[in-house]
Batch of 3 targets.
Target 1
Amino acid sequence: MADRPRRSGAILSLRGGDTADPVADRTGGPPLWTCPRCGHRFVSRNLWHSCSRFTLDEAFERSTPAARAAFERFVELVEECGPVVVIPQKTRIALMARVRFAGGQVRRDHVLANIALTRRVDHPRWTKVEEVAPRWFAHRFVIRRPEDLDDPDLKTLVCEAYREHGEQRKLRRRAG
């Protein structure tokens, strides 16, 4: 995957290079705030964050090629739902549509992946489900190789997470 962008500190879209706000116009939400120090985007002005700037290469420098390939397949799966920004951080990699709604923690031979759903869903792939906030359930699962993501039910749930949390549709329905 040598054609993937790798600039230090970049917010990455694995398909389209650097990007800042891939879905703001599509979702109809207010503009995102951009941190003047790190360039990361958030739904709230001055939201606390670490201002870190890492690359995917740094995140995967101690992992196996299979773990990297599994994560890149996870990003491709999310991209089938809509535009996504990949944000490498010190301890995780966040996936963002309008907000961060999925991601993973890189380990030597696997990625501890997660998606946020508005409801608890039973699925054999989950290693843990926890309610982080009302209507915000983190569903965690392990991916070791790209084939781990071939489950059509998983794709449906990833797209649900993208719509409900990533695009903030759950908020617009509640407000409207």
Target 2
Amino acid sequence: MIPVASCFSQLLSLVDRASFARAVRQHQAERGAKGFSCWDQFVAMLFCQMGGANSLREICGGLATSMGKLVHLGLRQAPTRSTLAYANTHRPWQLYQTVFEELLKSCQSLAATKKRRFRFKHPLRSVDTSIIELCIKVFDWARFQRTKGAIKLHLQLDHQGCLPCWALVTDGDTNDVRIAQKLEFAPGTIVVIDRGYLDYALYERWTQSRVYFVTRSRTNMLYKVLERRTVAARGNVKRDETIKLTSEHARKRCSSLLRQVTV
């Protein structure tokens, strides 16, 4: 028994080995394999992600420096670069999609039983985008700028357990608002977005659908204050107002009343 396991070992313990083995059989991922199993490949690539490795050399060298601990991760020895490269090229990616989906279901079941520090009566979702830079010489289809390549990861986070509930990968030039316009939320959902998703027509549609949203306003936004609510003398909230947009552009797209809170 290991009295104190490493962080990496604790992370791997979240993956059920029996479910992983079933996924391997389902996709016949080890057909023709000679010694280097899918679990070995999974451990190596997870080590790459957690350790921030940038090459096969860093992955294999990093695992080789902890030979005495590899047995606790289910590895007999560190892989060679050629073996790992061949596995990454020929093993079916659908295996790891199945592993991810099984792990996500397990995490969602666990998260549903946990109490949150900040609890809301309605579902809380965060929507944001991350740009992932790529080498334009290798990924010529992912041209982002003249000399750079990139893709965008659009992610929706469920705050019940801080788990992803929706994701989309697009090219780097895709506008965030275009993606947000296609999203559908159940009435009563609270959506948190940043200023990059500013679209008055989108705000109007969400308001009419009884979807709440929290975002930052433009510094030059034109509006009229219709009501001021009383706020506590002590606290971070300075103003709580009901406003109506007054600029011609905004008024045509969003005629609903909005609530502006200054913190």
Target 3
Amino acid sequence: MEMEMKDDLGLTMDRLAAAADMLERVAEQLAQRQSVFADDAEAKINRIVATVEAHREAELEEKLAEAELKIAELQARGATDAPASGRKTLPTTMSNLLSKQGVTLDSLEAGSLDAALCSLSVEQRIAVKSQLIRAGLLG
């Protein structure tokens, strides 16, 4: 009886060894399949990314061409739509403010303007200079 048990135990061990060997081969095959699948997936993703990037690049080039065309049109229109030199006026509040500071529009110079506006706050100086630039009296 003990002999039979040893034989059964030996048979079971042989079966277990065969099963372990088979499991190792299956695991290797699965690892190879996974590697091939990962390589295929990476190649497909790279192709998709390249397609999307090419499409986006073409889209950006088209937008750039449109923008360059619009800039050229605006520059051409700006050259032809130059304002005629006519009467340049300031709002009365600005004229009054400048006259109170002793600045006349005929003798407008940057140095005299800065000296006249030094008593004003920074915001008020900026507003006055902005109005003068809009009116074309200060360059």
